[in-house]
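A reminder from the course coordinator: this example appears on the midterm review sheet, so study it carefully.

Given structure:
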């Protein structure tokens, strides 16, 4: 597909767009891009925070990615597009699967189609390790079987398949990143289900930390949001179009080890409140990141350092987490 009349000049490599740029990962990516001298367009339903919008070279375009016309207009003029927007809540996908698919499936299709129509030079799309489903081997490389067990995983995988089919059929220059468990500043405690932020918030409120599952068998690969942004920038520069890359730290951390690290970071012993009646996610979820490392990525934030920095940012008595994890509709929190 060629470029449309929406374009008034060839895209400049300094002009980039970030869908979901007002959100958790997107806001960090926008900051990194602006600091590197890029002209960044935030494409989002929500307006960005004032300090983000005030960065040099940053502007905002309101768009609902479920609407193709709005998507097309919002992405015009971009040389590179980072597609970060989407529903990131597995629980919300259980309770509202149509909404989840519209955001992650249809929205991603619209972004890919618009990028092809506009002649975007590179599209970097953020998927999720949830597409793998229950781990069958350890660590998980990109050729691991994909059998998602949540609608969220299915919708993210649908977006991946759509973009990769667009690469195959009309050379859409797309690269896909599959992050594992992201943590860091700016997570919303009402929606973020990652254990790092949740553990810290309970601990900083001097309360027992609720842990669901087997605290030794349940392991995760926790990757700091700035490392995720670093990976996305590497993919934009050196990723092979049509390929998928894991994004993680490559390190395995059990729930018990995370709790111990939270205690170290806060200088106070932790109290655990373990519920081992639900074992659906008591598995080893750790990334093989050798493919991403081969093109220049290296994680820089150690978990201990990330925990200390996040604890300092949250301060004493932060807002308690309210996000829950549901695997079946009857267990979900209704809205």
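Designed residues:
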């Amino acid at each position: 597909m060629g470029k449309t009349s929406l374009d008034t000049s060839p895209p400049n490599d300094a002009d980039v767009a970030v869908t979901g740029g007002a959100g958790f990962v997107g806001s960090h990516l926008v900051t990194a891009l602006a600091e590197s001298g890029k002209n960044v367009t935030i494409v989002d339903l929500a307006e960005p925070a004032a300090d983000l919008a005030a960065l040099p070279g940053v502007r905002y375009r309101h768009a609902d990615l479920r609407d193709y016309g709005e998507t097309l207009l919002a992405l015009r003029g971009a040389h590179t597009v980072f597609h970060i927007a989407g529903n990131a809540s597995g629980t919300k996908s259980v309770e509202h699967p149509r909404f989840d698919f519209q955001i992650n499936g249809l929205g991603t299709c619209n972004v890919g189609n618009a990028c092809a129509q506009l002649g975007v030079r590179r599209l970097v799309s953020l998927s999720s390790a949830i597409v793998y489903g229950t781990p069958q081997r350890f660590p998980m490389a990109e050729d691991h079987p994909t059998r998602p067990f949540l609608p969220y995983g299915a919708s993210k995988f649908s977006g991946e398949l759509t973009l990769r089919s667009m690469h195959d059929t009309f050379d859409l220059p797309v690269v896909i990143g599959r992050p594992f468990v992201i943590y860091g500043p700016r997570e919303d405690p009402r929606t973020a289900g990652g254990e790092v932020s949740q553990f810290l918030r309970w601990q900083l409120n001097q309360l027992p930390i609720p842990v669901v599952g087997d605290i030794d068998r349940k392991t995760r690969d926790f990757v700091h949001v700035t490392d995720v942004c670093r990976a996305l920038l590497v993919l934009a520069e050196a990723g092979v179009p049509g390929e998928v890359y894991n994004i993680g730290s490559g390190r395995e951390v059990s729930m018990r080890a995370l709790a111990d690290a939270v205690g170290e970071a806060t200088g106070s012993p932790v109290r655990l409140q373990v519920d081992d009646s639900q074992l659906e996610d008591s598995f080893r979820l750790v990334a093989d990141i050798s493919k991403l490392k081969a093109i220049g990525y290296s994680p820089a934030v150690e978990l201990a350092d990330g925990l200390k920095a996040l604890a300092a940012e949250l301060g004493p008595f932060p807002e308690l987490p309210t996000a829950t994890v549901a695997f079946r509709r009857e267990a979900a929190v209704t809205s």
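The first strand starts at residue 15 and ends at 19. The chain is about 35% helix and 15% strand.
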